[in-house]
Specification:
259 residues; alpha+beta; OB fold (Dihydrolipoamide Acetyltransferase, E2P); Alpha-Beta Plaits; 3 domains; 39% helix; elongated
Amino acid sequence: MVRIQEYPEEGELVVCSVRDVKSFGAFVILEEYEHKEGFIHIAEVATGWVKYIRDYIREGQKVVCRVLRVDESKGHVDLSLKQVNEHQKRDTIHAWKNEQKAEKLFNILCERIGAEEEKCYQDFGYNVIEEFGSLYTAFEECAINQDVLSQEGFSGEWIDTFNQIALENIVPPYVKIKGYLDLRCHVPDGVEAIKKALKVAEDAEEATVKVSYVGAPKYCLNVQAKDYKIAEDEIKKAADRAISAIEKNQGTGQFNREG
């Protein structure tokens, strides 16, 4: 597993393995940081008075903690278990598991191209992590767009294998939204004008836009994108393109997010 050499920052959420539990607190290993350990004082284990610390934490357990203080000169990292809510715990563990999966996929990549894992990290792996923030994000982006590595300036025969592994193993995250177009055109070739307007609506850059027939003059815009902001932007652009196209042919158009 690729571990970070530096110390975590105060306020950061970290995944830990509980190494030793004492009556006054627990010593843990920071999973994402090379040779780093931390300490959870009993006062930071749970809200309120803790009578038996082992009711809350045990050896071998995986926990998510918030970093309270870091003293690099002494190698001390003070942590809090009680300052992490369930939502934060779930998201942090999920991201950590994703990164573990990505590192296994990177190992598969190295095997397929016949290169040592450490050499692959040195040649391009660490640069990929720096560019995308994490290995998993890089695989995720490649599952969505197979040109993204080249667009970010990377080169090499490994890129095709990286993309293939991403497509085989990563299900891209998507959000789906829909809205409704009301298109009318009463000129002799109005039907063709509407068809052309719907076609240009589907010509999106950052999302997948599909038009489905509801019942004349109503049509549904179905948008699939990476997040809601992009989806909302793209559905508005798609509607604007369709309305602009139909108005050029003496028609009218309206867009509504609700049916």
